[in-house]
Amino acid sequence: MSAVGPASPLPEEPITPPPITTPSRKVSVRLQERRGSNLSLLLDVSSLGAEPVCSVSTPKEVWLQLLHTSSRPLNHAALQDAAADTHTLNAEYQKIPPNFVSAAELDVPGHVIKDRYKSILPNPESRVVLRSLEEEAGPDGYINANYIRGYKGAPAAFIATQGPMPHTVGDFWDMVWQEGSSIIVMVTRLKENNEKCELYWPQPPERERKEEGEEEQREEEEEEGETGRFGRFLLRVTDSWEKDGFTVTDMEIQLCAERRPIRHYWFTSWPDHHIPQCTAPLLRLVEEVESYRKSLLPPDPQPITATVRGAGPIIVHCSAGIGRTGCFIVSSIGCQQLRETGQVDILETVCQLRLDRGGMIQTTEQYQFLYSTLAQYSSQLQHRQEQNQNPKDQVTEHLQNLQLDKTQTQKN
């Protein structure tokens, strides 16, 4: 009988390794998609026993009606309270339709190469059209820019546009010349991580110390360095000085024998997609621009809503031409509202801007900053009015107080 050896161990079942999981790739989100969509609205219908969330189409007429009718006028005291209520401001901002323009709505062949951001397009109804030159018959030119209404709906008080690119600098100056604009407000640096705007005007050369014998050469170099050709125009810087938070540059634009003055304001203390650390520099810029604009007015009085002759629209740009650009324009209009009426309607003004150019005011933080800025201006305005009160009014108020005190004394 043969011996039976020990039983061989049963083979172990193969162990299945855990599945390899790859972190989900972060989907690239375009600028417009970060701000929301015009055409979709999420509705929670879980209580109806249906799918938890569904997407439905919002007719364009609905959000256009919202933009035309939304309003929230605030007096000085109510503005202070509203600026402190960030939760309400966030909810208010989220309800404003962006009114972005799709590529299908913009029937301009070849516009893509002239758009800095492919999802930020000019509203067709209010876009600036570069008219073809009389001596060069052809199709009208394209620029990513819109006319923006001002205080009390004044037509074309501003132009909001993107920061010029290397191949659109000529278009930018064509627009300045065509519109007769005398003021440009730039609310971006040239680079912020990446390029935000092409340098589109001549820069003064670095001023180095020269020996007395080189004084004449230095003047010639400065004259040459401060002049440059951009597109079909010759630009010459005539003066430049620093202010608190921005730089002011006076220049001259020349086409053939005609010359026109241009004042350029460059606000550099505002980071992209964020807000400045304080409101004071922006308010100073707004007041400076408004004061210079008034100096360009003709001597005869003009109605508030009249188009300014000889000054043209104020051209405002950042990089995309909707965020910081929108904040400057809303601040300017809001300051006028407070001066003229003692009230401000930021919600209505932002809606008006978005009707003219989609996406104006890009973030909740920028919207809240507008309220803080105008609340600060409101306080300054009231303080100035108290200091500048007419002496006759002060005497009348004092007599009224004395009369009131006398009446109360007699009653007691």
TrEMBL record:
<feature type="domain" description="Tyrosine-protein phosphatase">
    <location>
        <begin position="89"/>
        <end position="377"/>
    </location>
</feature>
<feature type="binding site">
    <location>
        <position position="272"/>
    </location>
    <ligand>
        <name>substrate</name>
    </ligand>
</feature>
<feature type="domain" description="Tyrosine specific protein phosphatases">
    <location>
        <begin position="283"/>
        <end position="368"/>
    </location>
</feature>
<dbReference type="InterPro" id="IPR000242">
    <property type="entry name" value="PTP_cat"/>
</dbReference>
<feature type="region of interest" description="Disordered">
    <location>
        <begin position="1"/>
        <end position="25"/>
    </location>
</feature>
<feature type="binding site">
    <location>
        <position position="362"/>
    </location>
    <ligand>
        <name>substrate</name>
    </ligand>
</feature>
<dbReference type="GO" id="GO:0030054">
    <property type="term" value="C:cell junction"/>
</dbReference>
<feature type="binding site">
    <location>
        <begin position="318"/>
        <end position="324"/>
    </location>
    <ligand>
        <name>substrate</name>
    </ligand>
</feature>
<keyword id="KW-0904">Protein phosphatase</keyword>
<feature type="region of interest" description="Disordered">
    <location>
        <begin position="200"/>
        <end position="227"/>
    </location>
</feature>
<feature type="active site" description="Phosphocysteine intermediate">
    <location>
        <position position="318"/>
    </location>
</feature>
<dbReference type="GO" id="GO:0019901">
    <property type="term" value="F:protein kinase binding"/>
</dbReference>
<protein>
    <recommendedName>
        <fullName>protein-tyrosine-phosphatase</fullName>
        <ecNumber>3.1.3.48</ecNumber>
    </recommendedName>
</protein>
<dbReference type="Pfam" id="PF00102">
    <property type="entry name" value="Y_phosphatase"/>
</dbReference>
<feature type="compositionally biased region" description="Pro residues">
    <location>
        <begin position="8"/>
        <end position="21"/>
    </location>
</feature>
<keyword id="KW-0597">Phosphoprotein</keyword>
<dbReference type="GO" id="GO:0005829">
    <property type="term" value="C:cytosol"/>
</dbReference>
<keyword id="KW-0378">Hydrolase</keyword>
<dbReference type="GO" id="GO:0005886">
    <property type="term" value="C:plasma membrane"/>
</dbReference>
<feature type="compositionally biased region" description="Acidic residues">
    <location>
        <begin position="213"/>
        <end position="225"/>
    </location>
</feature>
<dbReference type="GO" id="GO:0007165">
    <property type="term" value="P:signal transduction"/>
</dbReference>
<dbReference type="InterPro" id="IPR008356">
    <property type="entry name" value="Tyr_Pase_KIM-con"/>
</dbReference>
<dbReference type="InterPro" id="IPR000387">
    <property type="entry name" value="Tyr_Pase_dom"/>
</dbReference>
<dbReference type="InterPro" id="IPR029021">
    <property type="entry name" value="Prot-tyrosine_phosphatase-like"/>
</dbReference>
<dbReference type="GO" id="GO:0004725">
    <property type="term" value="F:protein tyrosine phosphatase activity"/>
</dbReference>
<dbReference type="InterPro" id="IPR003595">
    <property type="entry name" value="Tyr_Pase_cat"/>
</dbReference>
<dbReference type="InterPro" id="IPR016130">
    <property type="entry name" value="Tyr_Pase_AS"/>
</dbReference>
